[in-house]
Amino acid sequence: MPEAPAPGLPLRIETFQSRSPPSRSRWDLQPLWSCHQADGSLGPALDDPWGARHRPDWAARGLVIWPRGGQWRQLTLDLACPQDWRQLQAPAPVAQARLVLRWWADQVELRVNGQPVHAGDLFDTACRWLLPESWWQGEVLQLELRLRSPLHDDGALIESRLELEPLDPADPAALLAETKAELAQMRAGQPLAGGFHVLGHAHLDLAWLWPVADTWQAAERTFASALDLIERFEHLHFGHSTPALYAWLEQNRPALFARLQQAVAAGRFEPINGPWVETDCVLISGASLLRQFQLGQHDSAARFPGLEHPLAWLPDSFGFAAGLPAVAQSTGVRWFCTHKLFWNATNPFPHRLFRWRSRCGSEVLALMTAPIGTDGDPVAMERYRLAWQGASGVDQALWLPGVGDHGGGPTAEMLEQLQLWQQQPEAAPQHHGSLRAYLAALEPLAPRLPVWRDELYLELHRGCATSRPDQKRHNRTLERLLREADLAQALAGAQGALAEAEPADWRPLLFQQFHDILPGTSIPEVFEQAEPQWRAARRSACRQRDRALHTWLGGGADWWVAQLQPLPARARTLRMPLGAWSHGGIGLPAQAAWAGGQWLQLPALAGVEALPLERTAAGPTAPIPAAVVEAPVWVEGWRCGNGLVSFALGPGGLEQLWDGAGQPQLAGPLAWRRYADRGEFWDAWDIAANYRDHPLAWAWQGEPIWLEQGPLCTSFLWRGRCGASAVRLEGRLLANTPWLELVLSVDWRQRHELLRLEVPLAQPAQRWAADTSGCVLERPAQAVTAREQARWEVPAISWLASVAAGGEGLAVLLDGPQGVSACPEQLGISLLRAPTWPDPGADNGFQRLRLALLPCSSGWSPAQVPQQAVAFREPFWLRPAVAQGRPGRRQAFPPLGEGLLLLGCRPSGEGGAVVLTVQNCSPARRRLELGSAWHLLERLDGLDQPLLRTQASGGDPWLLMPWSLGFWRIRPARD
Question: What is the radius of gyration, based on Cα positions, of the chain?
Answer without folding.
Answer: 31
